[in-house]
Write a structure and sequence with these properties.
Layout lengths: L3 H8 L2 E2 H10 L4 H9 L5 E3 L11 E4 L6 H14 L1 H12 L3 E3 L3 H5 L11 H10 L3 E5 L6 E5 L9 H25 L8 E2 L7 E2 L2 E2 L2 E5 L6 E3 L2 E3 L1 E13 L1 H15 L7 E10 L1 H9 L3 E4 H5 L1 H15 L3 H5 L1 H11 L6 H21 L2 E9 L6 E9 L6 E7 L9 H21 L8 E7 L5 H9 L7 E5 L1 H8 L5 H10 L7 H6 L7
Parallel strand pairs: 13-14, 14-15, 18-19, 19-20
Antiparallel strand pairs: 1-3, 2-3, 4-6, 5-6, 7-10, 8-9, 10-13, 11-12, 16-17, 17-18
Length: about 500
């Protein structure tokens, strides 16, 4: 007859109900099995904070904690007996193992403010308590992220996550315009991830949501027609497998479970699906589709290229500006995505521009840390110029037509970012004796009070400070020999008048 220790050595970490079943196969009664587990001694550990059906506990031996088999066993238990936790784990895995904290509710698929259901915040707290997940603030930006804590789980970099978020945002805006133009959703009520109002339907957060008056989704009520809903999640991280699709299916099932909830039409968009993943979606009535099916193969390829380009911090842009022009021309055809996309690529275009005009070695999107204080900062563009001209560090501010760089932005850059970066770069042996110039570049105007403040600020003794607004950038762009760089700037950043006189006559609020 097996001891509890021998049994756990053989079957691995398990639920107490599973151990009772194993002992029953050896002829031990359920009551005796429970007593043996209760008397197993200090070597038997119980996972604190999580209980499963029939008051079962997850148990393991002291030396089994935290290894790969331990986490696999816990995932199996989640899948079979703790679907809320399993959905959160599967959702985060499908997103690369790390994700912005503000979007975690959509990833885990939990229902907020619903009785007898674990909310996303409660799920996160419990998974943090068992050391499966952790929160951290990204260096440079300080933005909170959630990630897997054990090394057994793979984790993408935050740079990879940000690149995909930008590409997915293009897809979401394309989906938004399709829903509006076809009348599939209420024109002014389509919400997208990152909007002021979260896209929530039936207490569950999605990447996109909207009420729909399409005939199969509406139902009569005492107040007239009651709309159904369109919901959509987008994940462009490779091929979505069966587990990723199953997490989305559960999310939709959970949203549709309450008796009085209106019909919900679910879309799941990916770059591609595995055969099992796509088969599961089809069998469960999920409208699974790819970016190629939605927008055509050219746009799908451009989205993949965009992710690669944003992930490699601009190196591709510095050697192949034609690639930037093609991406901008392809993806800005999707209405609603243009402004966000132009902002994401502005740093790369500026980096490519200054490298061509001035030569030297380009570094873009790098994070730096002051090890004395622990503070971090990022350089949008850093050009190590040739012939002893020193390093040029550019802060990029891409603005939509009618907007301008305001006083708060200028003061934060001039009084906070620049001194911090100067201190960090001076401590780096590569720049210890190099003249340093810090400049603020924007494709739009700088607000009058901000410009006056810049001009009146004292000149630092140890480094140079400058700026270029839209008009000054136009003159600089004319120095570029590459037609692709000039076209990218003129077509996508200087398409609207930016003259200072126009800005003075038709003022925009300073906080625009």
């Amino acid at each position: 007859m097996s001891s509890i220790t021998d049994l756990l050595r053989r079957v691995g970490p398990s639920l107490t109900t599973e151990l009772i079943s194993e002992l029953a196969n050896e002829g031990v009664s359920a009551a005796s099995a429970r007593q043996r587990i209760a008397r197993a001694g200090d070597n038997l550990k119980r996972l604190a904070g999580l209980r499963f059906p029939h008051n079962a506990r997850f148990v393991y031996l002291d030396d089994q904690f935290g290894n790969k088999d331990y986490w696999l066993a816990l995932e199996r238990v989640f899948r079979e007996h703790g679907k809320s936790y399993w959905s959160a784990v599967s959702g985060l895995k499908a997103r690369g193992g790390v994700y912005p904290r503000k979007f975690f509710a959509g990833v885990c698929g939990g229902a907020d403010a619903r009785m007898r259901q674990l909310s996303p915040s409660r799920i996160l707290d419990r998974l943090k308590a068992i050391q499966l997940l952790e929160e951290f603030n990204e260096d440079g930006t300080g933005e909170p992220f959630v990630r897997f804590k054990p090394h057994a789980y793979g984790r993408d970099t935050t740079g990879q996550i940000r690149a995909r978020l930008i590409a997915e945002n293009v897809v979401l805006h394309g989906m938004k315009e399709w829903c509006r133009k076809t009348g599939f959703a209420s024109f002014e009520k389509v919400l997208v991830r990152g909007d002021d109002g979260a896209p929530v339907v039936s207490s569950i957060t999605w990447d996109l949501s909207a009420p729909s008056y399409a005939r199969p989704l509406v139902s009569p009520s005492s107040k007239g027609l009651k709309p159904g809903f369109v919901v959509c999640d987008v994940n462009l991280r490779g091929a979505l497998d069966e587990n990723a699709v199953a997490a989305f299916v559960r999310k939709h099932d959970l949203a549709s479970a309450p008796q009085k909830v209106a019909p919900i039409m679910p879309f799941l968009i990916a770059d591609t699906f595995t055969s099992k993943g796509f088969g599961l979606a089809r069998s469960r009535g999920i409208l699974a589709t790819t970016t190629a099916h939605l927008f055509g193969e050219d746009v799908a390829k451009a989205l993949r290229d965009l992710i690669r380009l944003l992930t490699d911090t601009g190196a591709t842009a510095s050697v192949n500006p034609e690639h930037i022009e093609r991406l901008l021309n392809s993806l800005t055809r999707i209405e609603g995505a243009a402004n966000n996309l132009r902002g994401a690529l502005f740093e790369i275009v500026v980096g490519s521009l200054v490298k061509e005009v001035e030569g030297g070695y380009l570094r873009a999107g790098e994070k730096w840390t002051d090890y004395e204080t622990g503070r971090a900062a990022e350089t949008d563009v850093l050009l190590d110029r040739p012939d002893g001209n020193g390093a040029l560090v550019i802060e990029c501010k891409s603005k939509m037509p009618g907007s301008r760089v305001n006083l708060t932005e200028v003061q934060k850059w001039r009084d906070d970012r620049v001194p911090l970066l100067y201190k960090i770069l001076r401590a780096d042996g590569r720049f210890s004796g190099t003249p340093l110039t810090f400049e603020l570049w924007t494709n739009g105007p700088i607000a009058t009070d901000a410009l006056d403040w810049l001009k009146s600020s004292p000149h630092p003794a140890d480094y140079a400070v400058g700026w270029k607004d839209g008009e000054a950038m136009k003159i600089y762009v004319d120095k570029a020999s590459s037609p692709s760089i000039r076209n990218a700037m003129r077509d996508h950043y200087f398409k609207h008048p930016l003259a200072r006189i126009t800005a003075e006559l038709d003022p925009v609020p300073a906080d625009a």
